[in-house]
Structure of Transglutaminase:
Amino acid sequence: MTSIRKNKVFMGLLYILVFLLLSEWLRPVIELTATGHHRLFLAFVALGLVMAFFDIPWWITGPLKLFYILWFIVYVYTGNLFFTAESIGFVLEQASISLSALFSQDWQATTDVFRTVLFFALLWMAIYLIHYWVSFRLSIFLFYLLTVIFVAVLDTFSPYSGDAAIVRIMVIGLLLAGLLHLARWMERHGAAAKTDKLLVFSIPLLLLLVASTALAFYLPKAEPIWPDPVPYITSYSGKGGVGEGGVGRIGYGVDDSQLGGSFVSDDTTVFRAEVEEGQYWKVEVKDVYTTKGWELSEEDAQEQLYQNGDEVTTDFPPEGEERSSALVDMQLPFPFVLYPYGTASFLMEETLEYRYDSIQQRFDTLQENAAFEPDVYEVFYSEPSYSLTALRETDTEDLSELPPEYDRYLQLPDELPERVGELAEEIAAGSDTVYGQAQAVERYFGTNGFEYSQSDIAVPAEDQDYVDQFLFETQRGYCDNFSTSMVVLLRSLDIPARWVKGFNEGEVIDTVDGYDVYEVTNNNAHSWVEAYMPGVGWMMFEPTIGFTGASSIDFDLDIDTSEPEEEEMPDRPEPEPEAQPEQPDADAGANAGPTAGERFLAFVSEQAGKLIAATIGLLLLVFMLFKIRKKWLPKVLIPYYRRKEGSAETFEKAYLRLLKQLELYGIKRAPGQTLRSYAEYVDSFFGTKEMTELTAAYEKSVYGGDAESVDWPKLKESWENLINRTSG
C-alpha cells in the first residue's frame, strides 16, 4: 500500500502552499525594511523547498545554498553577475570587518553583508523546520498560527496593511491544514494514497473555501464590539508624532524637529465640539525650519494673561460685533487650549487665567499659577473675512517695507538647495500680487502629480533636505509635507509665512439645538500655513490635497451674481397599479407523478459530474465578474436608480453607493477626512463640481434633517455622470 508521503502529486501541492505561506512572511519584512530584491529571496525559498521535496542529500543542498548566498552578495553589493577577483576580495573584506566586530562585541560595526547572511540563515532554518513539519509530522498548525499573529501584529503596529494578506493566509492556511488532516486520517486508517482518491477528497474542501471566501467579501461586516486598545494606550505616551523619522501613530505631538516617515491611523476621540459649522482648531505655530523639521525661535516669549471671559487679542481679530459660540468637550487630556480663527474670548466654570504666547500663538490655562487641563469650555469667535479687492491690491514691493519683527517668518537654512527657490520663482511667475503668488503656490500641489498618503513616506537622509526631497523626488506625503513645503516656497519669495499645527474640523455625528456636533479624533491632527498679506494681515492657506480649510473671502467686486431662473419640474403622473397575477390552484397536479423534490434528487444523482463542473465554472465566472466589477457595475446601478422614486431615501442610498464606487475606482477617502473635503478632492480629480453639489444636498438631508429639500430628479444627472466616470 502506497504511503501518503510517497505521493508526489499530493506532497507537491503541499509544498506549493507552504511556499505561498512563507512568501507572506517575506513580503512585509522586505516592504517595511526597504530591503529590496524580493524575487531573489523568494527564489532562495523556492530552491530550498524543491530540494527538500526531492530529498536531495545535505552534502549537495548545503553547498548549493551557500553558493546562492555568495552569488546574491556579489550581485547585489557589487553589481557583478559572475564571480570576479574584485568581488571575491569584497566578500573577504566584509567578512573580516564583521568578524572583528563580533570578537570585539561591537555589534553596530557589523556590515550589511553580514546582516544579509544572517537573514539567509533564518530563511534556511525556516525551510528546514517547515520541511520537517510537513513531511514527517504532517502538521503545519503552529507555523500557520504564527503567520496569522505575525501579520496581525504588523498590521496593528506598523504602516503595513495586512487586509489582503490575512485573507490570503486564511485561505492558504485552511487549505493546507485540511489537506494535512486528510493525510493523517488516511495514514491512521491505512487508506490507499492514490492521486484520484486524494483529488476526490480535496476538491470539496477547495470549493468550500472558495465559496466561503466569496461570501465573506459580499456579506455585511459588523463593526468591532470593543474599541481598539492600542490607540488608547499610545494616546497617553505623549508621542503623537514620529520619533526620529520612524513609524508613528497619528496624533498631536510637540516634537517636530524630525519630520518624515509613515503613520498608523488612530481614531481615538480627542474632543467633541458643538458649533454652527466646521472649524479648524489652532494650537500653535513654529517658525524655524531646520532642513529636517520645525523648531521655535529663541526669542523671549511675549506672554499675555487674560481672565476668564476677557477679550483676547490674536493675529486674527474677530469679524464685526456678532459672535458665534462653540462648546468644546475634551475626551482626552490635552495640555493646550484649542481655538478657532477669530477667537474673541473663553468661558469656563472654573476660576482660572488664560496665558497667551504671541510667539507660539498658543493658549495655556492656569489655575493658581499651575497648568490646568480643561474638560469643558466655551469659546466665542467670529471668523475673519478678507476683502478680495484688498487682496488683489497686495503689492510685492510692500514686502521690503515690513518691520524687522517679520524677519523670523522669512528664515531659511543656508543648506536649502537652490532649486527650491528656482521652483518658487517659476510657480509665481504669472502673478504680480502677494495674494496671487500665495494662491499659485497653494494650488501647485493639486495639479502637478502630488499624492496624499500616510504610508510609505520617505525620511530624508542626513545630507538631504525634507522639502527638497518631497518637491523633486517623492511627491508623496501627508499634511506636514505639503504645509512645510508651502511655507518654504513662500519664504523663498520673501513672503512671511509660518507653520501651524492643530486639528481639522472632524466629522459631524449629531445635531443639538441647531448646532452640529463634530467629533475630532487623533486622525484629524493636522498642519497648515499662515502667510502675511501686506495691508491686509495674516491669512490661513491649505495646500494639502483633499482638505479645504481656506480663509473666508468677501467677494466685494462688481460682478453679476444673479442666478438663472430654474424651470419648474412637471408633475409626475401617478403610476397605475399593477395587475395581480392569478394564484395557481393548490390542488392542481396533486396526483401528477413524482414530487418536485424527488425529481430534483433524481436529476442531481444522474448529472453529478456535470453539476460539479458547472459549479466550478460558475465560481470562476463569479470570480472574474468580481475582479472587473468596477467596469460593469455602473451599467447596472444607473438603470436601477433611474427607476426608483424621487425620494430623499433614494438619494441617500444612491449617494452612499457612489462613495463605494469611488473607493472601488481608486479615489479613497483619507482617514479623518470630512465628506465636504472629500467631495472637493473628487471634483479636483475629475474637474467638476458635481460631487460638492451632491454632498451639500446629502448633508442638508441627513445631518440638517431637511429631507424635503432633496430634488432627486435634478441631482440624478450629476450622480449618473460621476458613476459613469468610475467605469473607466
About this structure: The CA atoms of residues 480 and 527 lie 6 Å apart. Residues 4-218 form one domain.
